[in-house]
Amino acid sequence: MKKINFTKLTPYFYVAPFFILFAVFGIFPLFYSIVLSFFKWTPSGPEKFVGFANYIRYFTKDPYFGRSVYNTILLLFTGSYVQHLFALPLAIMLNQKFVKGRDVLKTIYFIPNITSAVVVTIIFSMLFDEKFGFVNYIMETWFGLPEIHWLSSSPGIKATVSIILNWKYIGFYTILYLAGLQAIPSELYESAHMDGANVWQQHLKITIPLLLPVIFFALSISTINGLQLFDEPFILTGQYSRMGGVDNGGLTTTFYLMFLGFRLGRFGRASAVAWLQFFIILGFTVVLRLIINKFDYTIEKKEK
Amino acid sequence: MDMTDSAVLASRRNSGGEFSLLKPGRILTYIVLVLLALAFAFPFYYVFVLASWPNDNIFVWPPHLLPGPAFVDNYHALFEQVDFYRNLFNSAAIATLATVTIIFFCTMGGAAFALYELKGKKTLFSLMLLTYMIPGSLSIVPFFKIINVLGWYNTWLPMIIPGMANAFGIFLMTQYIKPAVPIDLMDAARIDGMSEFGILLKIIFPLAKSGISVLGILTFIGSWNTFLFAYIMLPDEKLTTFPVVLAKLFSKTSGGYGALMVGNAIALIPLIIVLLFFSKQIIAGITEGSLKG
């Protein structure tokens, strides 16, 4: 009898660690951050209840928040979404039957992804150095371009961060898409070929629709990670001291949140930023979902 | 269209391709693939180039393309500033501890969802997945306060304990355990008098091997590279991880870029060695992990 009772309790013991840890380190901070966001906090502690003032200030008098949201969303497109336009064709190229050395190529494409963001950013700051960097050298001697201000102008910082992110993640998504492509039965392409579909039509009618779940999944990770971007711009632009470099070009929302919370000790304002950021992420995720659903629907309709 | 027709068509397609159409396409494909490989690999090479030039000669015009003579000098300069191997050791130790605990607790949680009767299982499972959607930056400020209250600031604990039973890991392990462990086998073991914990250790763990290796690889790499968390929770130079120390060196750079680049180079070496031996498993692990997750 006792043994059976214990067997019944076992699964509760097994899932308990997750729910206990989540209660302490997940739920509690979540509610706590709501509370925090309604108070004025200084490095010495809570001062007074201020209601929505911490939120309202970002729409009225604090220009940095708006700037950080603008930077983050711009970088989401140039640094996180654009790479899918490279990764998918690259995966299709790699997936061609005749390609030899696929595993070696995959490994090389993939190394950047598992390299520490700090190491990567330091390397790129050297490559993109304005006076002596390798990139400007190529630009000037091969293409005759003037010195490009990669690190001392707002568009330059964004371009550099975007290039870093593309370099770091194209390989990852290529391999993800490649795995998705390999799951598509090759008979589909063969029969499409018989029906006279050219390569473009085949990819448009077979590859993209069948890969849609993988694409949605990949774009979702891109969105969530992209909107929380921190490491690369933070290190590239000299950490807290310069708040994202020239014209705050590299100041992302998470960067600003960290700056308020951990540099200034303004936990209330930082928490308000965190919640506004949460709603931005939520909004993007919902819109993405709606777009994909619409796609799915039109495909089904056509097939019918 | 019968078999012979399609065979003729196929052979035509092949012969046409052999001589005219496919070859230039193939060459173009290879050119693109190899150029990209070079673009992805070049920055790694460049680290070793910069790491080997003396400080007063790193930044020159035209930039160096070949390694120089000062790697050893830069190496000594680095270790005059920081005990870098200690930080690499810290990173490895934290990543190992995180991996071991995550494997243990997530396999346990996964077993509960995959193999046991659990009241409100579906609700609990979706509740767990919902928690996975919460962005980490949302609660980082109060999280920091909790760590302080617990007295865990400047220890390894915040890097290991809060994440050791996490939603992604349990979800992944549930997916792997469900088809891998037969319930009959567990019942047979119970009849033989094996305890539930014995079943977990002796039956579920061995059978969940492939899932464990995927989760282990993902966790180790994630923990090894983590920056933001270590930067906030673990500032002590003796206790902290290598990315934090490199970021600090980079922001000072008073010790010279040569030494900094040696640090980067040393940090890359374990990665390169691991990839030489395990690239297939790592790539398989990460794709499976993300596609299942």
From TrEMBL, chain A:
<feature type="transmembrane region" description="Helical">
    <location>
        <begin position="107"/>
        <end position="128"/>
    </location>
</feature>
<feature type="transmembrane region" description="Helical">
    <location>
        <begin position="73"/>
        <end position="95"/>
    </location>
</feature>
<dbReference type="InterPro" id="IPR000515">
    <property type="entry name" value="MetI-like"/>
</dbReference>
<keyword id="KW-0813">Transport</keyword>
<keyword id="KW-1003">Cell membrane</keyword>
<dbReference type="InterPro" id="IPR051393">
    <property type="entry name" value="ABC_transporter_permease"/>
</dbReference>
<keyword id="KW-1133">Transmembrane helix</keyword>
<keyword id="KW-0812">Transmembrane</keyword>
<dbReference type="Pfam" id="PF00528">
    <property type="entry name" value="BPD_transp_1"/>
</dbReference>
<feature type="transmembrane region" description="Helical">
    <location>
        <begin position="163"/>
        <end position="184"/>
    </location>
</feature>
<keyword id="KW-0472">Membrane</keyword>
<protein>
    <submittedName>
        <fullName>Sugar ABC transporter permease</fullName>
    </submittedName>
</protein>
<feature type="transmembrane region" description="Helical">
    <location>
        <begin position="272"/>
        <end position="292"/>
    </location>
</feature>
<feature type="transmembrane region" description="Helical">
    <location>
        <begin position="204"/>
        <end position="227"/>
    </location>
</feature>
<comment type="similarity">
    <text>Belongs to the binding-protein-dependent transport system permease family.</text>
</comment>
<dbReference type="InterPro" id="IPR035906">
    <property type="entry name" value="MetI-like_sf"/>
</dbReference>
<feature type="domain" description="ABC transmembrane type-1">
    <location>
        <begin position="69"/>
        <end position="288"/>
    </location>
</feature>
<feature type="transmembrane region" description="Helical">
    <location>
        <begin position="12"/>
        <end position="39"/>
    </location>
</feature>
Automatic annotation (TrEMBL), chain B:
<feature type="transmembrane region" description="Helical">
    <location>
        <begin position="92"/>
        <end position="116"/>
    </location>
</feature>
<keyword id="KW-0472">Membrane</keyword>
<feature type="transmembrane region" description="Helical">
    <location>
        <begin position="156"/>
        <end position="177"/>
    </location>
</feature>
<dbReference type="Pfam" id="PF00528">
    <property type="entry name" value="BPD_transp_1"/>
</dbReference>
<keyword id="KW-1133">Transmembrane helix</keyword>
<keyword id="KW-0812">Transmembrane</keyword>
<comment type="similarity">
    <text>Belongs to the binding-protein-dependent transport system permease family.</text>
</comment>
<feature type="transmembrane region" description="Helical">
    <location>
        <begin position="254"/>
        <end position="278"/>
    </location>
</feature>
<feature type="domain" description="ABC transmembrane type-1">
    <location>
        <begin position="88"/>
        <end position="278"/>
    </location>
</feature>
<feature type="transmembrane region" description="Helical">
    <location>
        <begin position="27"/>
        <end position="48"/>
    </location>
</feature>
<feature type="transmembrane region" description="Helical">
    <location>
        <begin position="212"/>
        <end position="234"/>
    </location>
</feature>
<protein>
    <submittedName>
        <fullName>Carbohydrate ABC transporter permease</fullName>
    </submittedName>
</protein>
<keyword id="KW-1003">Cell membrane</keyword>
<dbReference type="InterPro" id="IPR035906">
    <property type="entry name" value="MetI-like_sf"/>
</dbReference>
<keyword id="KW-0813">Transport</keyword>
<feature type="transmembrane region" description="Helical">
    <location>
        <begin position="123"/>
        <end position="144"/>
    </location>
</feature>
<dbReference type="InterPro" id="IPR000515">
    <property type="entry name" value="MetI-like"/>
</dbReference>
